Automatic annotation (TrEMBL):
It comes from Pantoea wallisii. Residues 21-93 form the HTH cro/C1-type domain. SUPFAM superfamilies: lambda repressor-like DNA-binding domains. This is Transcriptional regulator. CDD domains: HTH_XRE. It holds the Pfam family MLTR_LBD. The lineage of its organism: Bacteria, Pseudomonadati, Pseudomonadota, Gammaproteobacteria, Enterobacterales. One of its GO terms (molecular function) is DNA binding. Gene3D superfamilies: 3.30.450.180, lambda repressor-like DNA-binding domains. InterPro entries: Cro/C1-type_HTH, Lambda_DNA-bd_dom_sf, MLTR_LBD.
Amino acid sequence: MSTAQAPTLAEHNNRKLLGTFLRTRRESLDPNRLGLPRMRHRRTPGLRREEVAQLADVGVTWYTWLEQGRDINASPKTLTAIATALQCNDVETQHLFFLAGHTLPSTRVAAACCKIAEHNQRMLDAIQLPAIIETPRFDILGYNQAWCGLMGVDLAEIAPEDRNCIWLAFTHPAWRKVMRDWDEVMPQMVAMFRGQMGEHLGDPHWESFLARLMNGSDEFAHTWQRYELGKVENRVKRFYHEETGELTLRQNNWWSASRNGDRLLVYVPDDAASAAALHKLMP
């Protein structure tokens, strides 16, 4: 007697959506641009199912069933091959995996956001205020010298794998020294990280970083056990430098158009005294 469970309504609907997505994507492609042989009589626009199956190295009948939304399973390896055959970008590939009941491998997600684009770095350099571009995991993709002056740390001297705001806040003495209201800011950071991680449970990229934080800071580990959740918000933060005294700055968050969670953080003086103090710290 078979123990296989019938697909749920949500799974059934996702299979239908998957079939629609595959067909729409297939029909949008230009065979000539993909180097496929010209055919005199193409009854439908775009690629034929046979051509997609050939490019993805799968059976034509199996691919037809997949596009028809039938109850069949596709492995991540096969989905990746199909996504490549259909020239899917990162967002389309992620959507394809979701509809098929899989999670996009974290190595591919991480590779898409591990390096800042040159034009984004030029934007940071042009901003006359402390600014960074940060991932949802708090990794610092890019920064300007005004930010380094504010935090009292030259990020160029920090190993790339350590350029992470939450890691530096808990492990770098100079970074922590300039942050006022630590007892308030620190729990907020941990709560924000837990809130962000909720969307990445089981992701080795995130899980390994959490383990590193737990092993690297008893204070982080203790705060993590409080199980508080937070979200990214614009905040007023206080900083302190011996040569300038206290600065009060507004942290403003701006998300990138790619909607992958990367955000631009710009720190704006909240009063005239803070503006004057920040000006002294400018490189």
